[in-house]
Amino acid sequence: MRRTILRRAVLIVWLLPLATTWGQQPAQPNFSGTWRQQSDHALRLVVEQKDDSVHITELKGTETIADYTCNTLGKECNVKYQGHAAKVSFWFNGSKLVELATRGSSVTRRRFEFANGDKTINVELSSIVPEGKSEKLAFARAGESPLPVTSKQ
Fold this sequence. Notes:
Radius of gyration: 21 Å
Number of strands: 11
Structural class: mainly beta
Strand content: over 45%
Helix content: 10-25%
Shape: globular
Order of helices and strands: HEEEEEEEEEEE
Distance between the termini: 66 Å
């Protein structure tokens, strides 16, 4: 009888930490901030992330290339990109924020991922249609010194 009680107590103590984390989603990274492309300082991304949405402003110098808000649940949003109609959707794949954009017959994917703590965002840009090479771009937090990590594949 004592052994059964002891086994149950050990089992409960062992399973309790697992039960408290069961069903909990890991915290999603927050990419909010102003980011400068390391290889072209005129290109900036301003990201405002809240709960289940993200607001992206892309700037080239003082010109606004794109300014849109979309959910991060994978639902498609109609936006304007360089003055043209486009559709985008965002979702998280682990710690990466993924954007799929359709502009006319062109489909691109961007994957945002932190590097160097939260001081740099690496963005993998891939052309899905037409099929093309991937390019990796590094964006440093505005005011941070850039790191030489930009590469093309």
